[in-house]
Amino acid sequence: EISGRKWTEVKELNGGLKDQDVLIRGRCQAIRAVGKKMAFVVVRERGFTVQCILTVTPDVVSAHMVKFATSLSRESIVDIEGVISVPATTITGATQQVEVQVRKLYCVNKAIPTLPINIEDAARSEEEIEKALKAGEQLVRVNQDTRLNFRVLDIRTPANQGIFRIQCQVENMFRQFLLSEGFVGIHTPKLIAGSSEGGSAVFKLDYKGQPACLAQSPQLHKQMAICGDFGRVFEIGPVFRAEDSFTHRHLCEFTGLDVEMEIKEHYSEVMDIVDRLFVTMFDSLNDTCQKELEAINAQYRFKPLKYLRKTLRLTFEEGIQMLKEAGVEIDPLGDLNTESERKLGQLVLEKYDTEFYILHRYPLAVRPFYTMPCYENPLYSNSFDVFIRGEEIISGAQRVHVPEYLTERAQACGIDVKTIATYIDSFRYGAPPHGGFGVGLERVVMLFCALNNIRKSSLFPRDPQRIAP
Ligand code: 4AD
Question: ipTM of this model?
Answer without folding.
Answer: 0.99
